[in-house]
Design a protein that fits this description.
The protein is globular, with a radius of gyration of 12 Å. It is about 25% helix and about 35% strand. Helix 1 packs antiparallel against helix 2. The protein is α+β, with helices and mostly antiparallel strands. A five-stranded mixed β-sheet has the order 4-1-3-2-5.
Length: about 100
């Protein structure tokens, strides 16, 4: 069964190899999805895969790489879209914040 988790991470999460480390860990676990920097300094990611693997990614997201300082990590379950591969997306433009609105 495939599940999907959409996470939003705040703190010192840019400039600390958060996205690349996330990509490598997701690939090791066979999790599909994406990660990107947000304009406000946060990071957003989507994880799709087996429940245990997605849970491991969500747990990792709340801690991040060694040099990160995560202060907040929220996640929302969503309907899987059938993503394949894991990608680092370009930075989100100003105003493209999933929590806004």
């Amino acid at each position: 069964m495939t599940v999907r988790q959409h996470v939003h991470v705040s703190g010192r999460v840019q400039g600390v190899f958060y996205r690349d480390t996330c990509r490598r860990f997701a690939e090791e676990r066979g999790v599909a999805g994406w990660v990107r920097n947000l304009y406000n300094g946060d990071v957003e990611a989507v994880f799709e895969g087996e429940p245990d693997d997605v849970a491991a990614m969500a747990h990792w997201a709340a801690e991040g790489p060694r040099s990160a300082q995560v202060t907040r990590c929220t996640g929302v379950s969503e309907e899987p879209e059938g993503l394949s591969g894991f990608h680092v997306l370009p930075d989100a433009p100003p105003g493209d914040d999933p929590r806004a609105g």
